[in-house]
Amino acid sequence: MGTNRDCQQESAGFAIIHACKEPCHRQAVGYKGNLKSSHPSYLMHLHGDRHLYLNMVDMDQELMPQYTHPIIERCMLFMDRHLTDKKVLVHCNWGISRSPSIALLYMARKKAISSDTYEIARHQFSTIYTAYSPGKGIEGYMEKYWTNLLQI
Questions:
Q1: Would you tell me which of 64, 89, 114, 123 could form a disulfide with 68, CB atoms 3.0–4.6 Å apart?
Q2: pTM of the model
Q3: Do residues 130 and 47 make contact, with C-beta atoms less than 8 angstroms apart?
Q4: Checking DSSP bridges between strand 14-18 and strand 44-47, what pairing results, if any?
Q5: Cβ contacts of residue 118 below 8 Å, gap of 6+?
Q6: Helix axis angle, 118-128 relative to 136-151, nearest 10°?
Q7: pLDDT tens-digit profile of 40-86?
C-alpha cells in the first residue's frame, strides 16, 4: 500500500493499482473536470500490463455498489494475475482508506487474515497496517457488502 508519492517512485517489476481519480486516473485517461459515464475508461483504465488506473473516490455508500463492485472485481483479478511473479503496489492519495481497503479484502479472500466479518478482518489488518483509517463511504460499503465482496 502506498500514497501518490509511492507511485511516482515506481520500481521495476511492480504492477500498480492507482486507486485515485486525482491525479492518476485523470492523467492516464487525459481529461479535466469529470469524465462522462459513457466513456469506456470511466471506471478504470488498464495501461499496458502493469498499470490499472481507477476512477475511485470515497463516496456515499448508497452509490458505491454501482461503481465500486466492478472496480473491486477488476482489482482482485489484477492482483491474482500479477502476484504470481511481481509485487503489486496499491496506492491512493494518502494510503489510509481506499488502497488499504482493497488490500484488506484481497488478504481476507486469500485467508491471510480472517474473512468472518469485516470488523474482525479490519481489526486483524489494522495490526499489520496501523495507518488504516477508512473513510465513511468505503467503510460502510465494506461492512454492508462484505459477504458479496468475498465472492467477487
A1: 64
A2: 0.93
A3: no
A4: unpaired
A5: 142, 143, 146
A6: 110
A7: 999 999 998 899 999 998 766 665 677 888 999 999 999 999 999 88
